[in-house]
Structures are given as C-alpha cells and as structure tokens.
Fold each of these.
Amino acid sequence: RKEVEQDPGPFNVPEGATVAFNCTYSNSASQSFFWYRQDCRKEPKLLMSVYSSGNEDGRFTAQLNRASQYISLLIRDSKLSDSATYLCVVNTNTGGFKTIFGAGTRLFVKA
Amino acid sequence: DAGVTQSPTHLIKTRGQQVTLRCSPKSGHDTVSWYQQALGQGPQFIFQYYEEEERQRGNFPDRFSGHQFPNYSSELNVNALLLGDSALYLCASSLDLTSGNTIYFGEGSWLTVV
C-alpha cells in the first residue's frame, strides 16, 4: 500500500462546478498535511495547509479526518485557471522526518 | 527575497555519465530535500540534508548522493546514469522540517538521459 494515495484522475468538470479530491495516508503518526498545486511542467506550489478543524481559503476548503486518515480538498465555482494537478502531501516523523507526496489528481476545467 | 533556485534548468546526458545538480535554498531556510518526479507521477523523496548531513533517505540507490554546504546550498549527484533517471529533479527548502514547516520548491532541473 502506498503511503499517500489519491483519487485517480483526471477529473473533467465544467466551469462553475464543485469538485472534491480525496486523499488517504497510511501512517497514523503523520503530523502535518498540505495540498499543493502543480501546473504542467512547473514546480509544485503550496495551495493550503490542512487542519483538523478544517480551513477555507476563498473557493477552496480543506478538511482532515485523523481517525480515518483522510484528507479532502473541495473547490467551488471552478475556474478555467484551476486546471492543474493537485498533490496531497503528508509530513511524517517515523524513523526520521519525511515529506511524502501523493501521485496527484489531474483536474481539467472546461468552458 | 530569492526563492529556491536550481541549476541547470535543462540538461541532456548519455547513459553511464554522471550529473551534478545544484540548489540554493530560500533565504533563511536550513533544510534541503531532493525529489525525483517522473512524468505523470508525484515527486518521490530522494534525501534530505540538514546541518550538512543527510538526515533522511528515500528508496533510491547509492548512485544518488548529495551534499550540503555551510551556506545551506546543496548538490545532487547521480552516477552511472540510466535511461530511467530521466525526470524532473526538484529541490525543496524549509526551516527545519521536524517542526512541520512548509516546504518550497525550486523550478526544477529537467534531466534527459539518452
């Protein structure tokens, strides 16, 4: 089992749609969680951190469920510019500190 | 304030050759991690340097080695290149990852092995 698993993509949605990405992690001792966005042939960039209490940044909402070892990202009112790959990221400190990336979920928003 | 910078941005090497990639972390950051990202995959952790020592290593062979300098900059060396080493190599920096700080990436070095 992979340490971080994400929904297989791609997701094809129309502008204005709401889309949700899911991610699960295997290490219950994981400490911090993030969503990164990666545009084609570019480096990943931090989209938002994920907290147990949930956090919102404009059209983006991230949730963490530690009991289920599950992270989600919700994008409301999708824009064409949201088209990218979304990477789920988990920091663990078991046998040393590591940052583990999921394989990413590709999103295409179409007009 | 410069972010993470990497060089070279693109390079082509022949099988069996050696390559050195360089990274300067974001100002104030002391931890550097290297990742390999193949097309269609997420970044795979290679290793992490802190205080000039390799603190953590992923599942990569010994052909992959690195170094961190006193100014926190870092190098990634890959020996005996294979075709499968073709990928985007990303350097990421942070302020001591053990505190869970966010990592920031450079634009990466695109390596093609022919």
Note: Chain B has a mean pLDDT of 92.
Amino acid sequence: DVKVTQSSRYLVKRTGEKVFLECVQDMDHENMFWYRQDPGLGLRLIYFSYDVKMKEKGDIPEGYSVSREKKERFSLILESASTNQTSMYLCASSSTGPNNQPQHFGDGTRLSIL
Amino acid sequence: GNSVTQMEGPVTLSEEAFLTINCTYTATGYPSLFWYVQYPGEGLQLLLKATKADDKGSNKGFEATYRKETTSFHLEKGSVQVSDSAVYFCALSDGWGGSNYKLTFGKGTLLTVNP
C-alpha cells in the first residue's frame, strides 16, 4: 500500500513565524501535491511538483512556497504565517502514466496560526 | 477550465436507506473520474474510479457510472451503514500537457447515517 506521511497531525504557530510542513511518500511517485481544505471551499491546490526540484503553482500559491530536493519528500513553507492560513493541509502523491492514476493522500496537518 | 459540481449537503439518512450523491463535470478532452471518501480526522481515500465513458466503478457496495452524454458520475449505494458516515468528494483528472495530472475536486458532500 502507498504510504503518504505528513510530519504533524496538529500544529500551532504564531503570526509571522516561518512554518514548514513536511510530506514523505514511500512509493517512488513522480508527482506530489499540497492542498488546503476549508469548510465550504473543498480542496484547493497550492503547489505541485512533477519531478525533483520542479514545482508549479496551483490555484492559491500566494503566501506559500515549496521545496522538493528528494523524490520522496515535498515540503510546504509558509514564509510569514498569517491567521488566514489557519486550515487543514493535505499532501498527496501519484505516479506518472495514463490519466487514471489516482492520488494518494496523507492524513493531513491541522495548522492553527495565532 | 475544468470544474466539478456535486450536490450540497449535508445528507442525513437512516441505516439501510438508498444513497445517491449527484456529480456533474465540465472538462476538455476525456477525463478520468474519481470518488474519494474522507472519514473524520483522516485524509482522503480513493473509493472508486472510471476512466472512459460507460465504465462503472465499484467498491464497498458503492457504484458510479461514467455518463459522457450527461457529463455525470453519480455515486450510489443500495443500503448505507453508520460506518459510511463521511465526506465524499467527486473529482476529475484530464492529464493533459505533461506529467502533472492535477485533480479538480468538487466541494464535498457530508453524509451522516443514523442507526
């Protein structure tokens, strides 16, 4: 089974802090994704990466950056955390192939910015 | 651009009732369609998928048929259980242009099943 592991289930940080969310997958997947999930808004794509050191902006990249130095690890960085970044963050990975490859999700990190 | 519209919840049913959650989509090309489920406190899990018109995906008693003529992928289950209480997401992937394979999600439908 694919395992996508997010480093923290719950995280509390203060406004202005630099925050790192880590995600590791164990299936050698090429693609990795970061979403945020908010009530009434569903899942929104922040950034994704289709290869090591490659990244592309999703629908809501403002205030975030990412890093992919190794194939199995994809980090989301909040450069200067703000209260409107309080949310559930979900990481996912998928393999490259025909477009029927599903994404596999981690359990999420519930981030609170005070 | 691509979009997915699913029925707004919450949906509340009694155990053994019939479930339908409607999902319609707009996409260029020939997308693959997915249903994901999110149990409380967890991430999303793939429930079922269909990759071409008239395909039926099925898993754990849930079914959905890819209807190209109506651009729909409705989720159904004949007899729900309390353990089916979760949020259900419809999604599509068209996989055009490189290896990104982004998913477009609906907003989710909360299902509560009462004993």
Note: Chain A touches chain B through 29 residues (CB under 8 Å).
